[in-house]
Amino acid sequence: MQSSVVLLQSDSRIRQSLVASLPHSFHRVQSVRSVNELRADVAKHRAEVVILDIEVASISDVKRLSHEFPGVGIVCTHRLADEEMWTAALNAGATDICPSYDTPGILTAAVRSAVLAHPVAA
């Protein structure tokens, strides 16, 4: 898969784990430090997937990204299971929600989102 992913994570251990794991499935992996930097990188590199820590970004940021970049998969992460927040993120346009500590789940969600962004022609 020749896809690109942009990652915004507040926890450095989680960020490092994802940056180490994502290149197995994505051609380009970019870690950023802010929502504005994330938006710029998604546009610049035509990323198919965003992995977004919703402890750093707001639900309105998820909604804005979803509208600004239709077709880009948005995988949100959070340390705590909060069904109301997770439902709000999905309603705002996230394609999936994963606990921050679940690196394999985040990777699976990111790959699934990339595939959905580029369906195979029949």
Radius of gyration: 13 Å
Strand content: 15-25%
* CATH C-level class: Alpha Beta
Instruction: Please indicate the count of domains.
Output: 1
| Number of beta-strand segments | 5
Strand order of the largest sheet: 2-1-3-4-5
Q: What structural category arises from helix and sheet content?
A: alpha/beta
SSE pattern: EHEHEHEHEH
Distance between the termini: 18 Å
Helix content: 40-55%
Largest sheet descriptor: 5 strands, parallel
Distinct helical segment count: 5
**Named CATH topology:** Rossmann fold
Give the CATH H-level superfamily: Response regulator
Please, what is the average pLDDT? 90
List the helices and strands and how they pair.
Blueprint: E1 4-8, H1 12-21, E2 28-31, H2 35-45, E3 49-53, H3 59-68, E4 73-78, H4 83-92, E5 96-99, H5 103-117
Parallel strand pairs: 1-2, 1-3, 3-4, 4-5
Can you describe what's shown?
This protein has helices spanning 12-21, 35-45, 59-68, 83-92, 103-117, and strands at 4-8, 28-31, 49-53, 73-78, 96-99. With 122 residues, it is α/β, with parallel strands linked by helices. The protein has one domain (4-117): Rossmann fold. Helix 3 packs parallel to helix 4 (83-92). The longest helix has 15 residues, at 103-117. The protein is globular. 40% of the residues are buried.
Considering the chains and any ligands shown, give keywords for the structure.
122 residues; Rossmann fold; five-stranded parallel sheet; globular; 5 helices; alpha/beta
Put the structure in a nutshell.
The protein has 122 residues and is α/β, with parallel strands linked by helices.
